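User: Continuing from earlier, I have the next pair ready.

Assistant: Great, send them over.

User: Here they are, in order.

Assistant: Folding the first of the pair now:
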Amino acid sequence: MTGSAWVTRAISTTTAITAGREPVRAQDLMTVVLGGLADVMEPARQRLRQRQQVIDDDVALTGRELAKQARWQMAIAEALVTRGFTPHASDLLAAVGFTLFRGALHQWLADDAAPTLRERATASLPEVRLVLDEVSRTLEVASGGG
C-alpha cells in the first residue's frame, strides 16, 4: 500500500469516527470503523498477501510498517477524543482496535476460507469483553474474592 493510500484510508477512518455527534457505544463505533476498513481491503486480498510477505521478509520494512500504524493509531485516538471519549479511553480503544484488526487481517491473509475480513474483525470485538471478564474472574479467585 502506498503512502498516499494509507493517508486516504486514515482520513476516511477518522472521518467515520467523527461523523456523528450523538453518544455512541465504543463497541458499535469500533464495529463501524473496523468493518469499513475491512470492506476497503477485502477486494485487494492477493495484493495485500504479497505485500505482507515482502514486509515480513524485511526487518526495515516491518519497522516502517509499525511506525506507520503507530501514527495512524494516534490519529484514531485523536478522532475518538473529538467524538467525546476521554484521552485515556481513546488511547486504549485505538490500541485494542489496531490489535484486533491486525490479528484478523493476518488470519484472513493466511486462510482463503470463510469468514470474510469484516466478519473476522467484527467478531473479535465481543471476544475482548469475554477475555476481560475471564481475566477478572481469574483474578478474583486468585485473590480469594470469588
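And the other member of the pair:
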Amino acid sequence: MQTRRTKRRYRGAPAPPWTSFVRVGPSQQANHGNSIREMWQNSRYLVSVDRTPVEYPESDGTPATVLQTIHLQIESHDHRATHDWREFQRIKNEILGEEEEAVETVSCGVSSPRLFQCVPPVVCSWNHSAVWELAEDG
C-alpha cells in the first residue's frame, strides 16, 4: 500500500517553476563547533548553509590565516533522487554568488569531485548533496 507521501512524491508531475531563494528564519548556531547555520528555500529546494571559520597556521610563525568553510546541504522538496548539475550551479550562484567557486564531494556513485565554477559554462541522482566552499573570512 502506498502512503500519501509516496503518491505525491512519485506522481511524475513536472517540477514547479523556479523561484528566487529566500532566507527562512534567522541564522542560528549549528549543532557542531562554532558554525553558523542559515536556511534558504525556493520552489524546488531547501538548502542548509553552515559557515565555519577555520584557522590555518602559518609555518613561518606569522599569524594564522582564517578562512571560512561554507557547506551547502541541498534537498529537493519532492525528495526525488535527481541530481541536475545545472540546478546545483544555479543554487551556488544564487546563495554564494556567481564569482565564487565550490566543489561537490563524492555522492552516490560520482567518483571524483565536481567543480562549480565562478563563470558557468554550464555543461552537463540523488535527492541530497553537499557543496563546500573555502572562502577568506570577511
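Worth noting for the second one:
The chain has one domain: 20-136. Helices lie at 4-9, 85-95.
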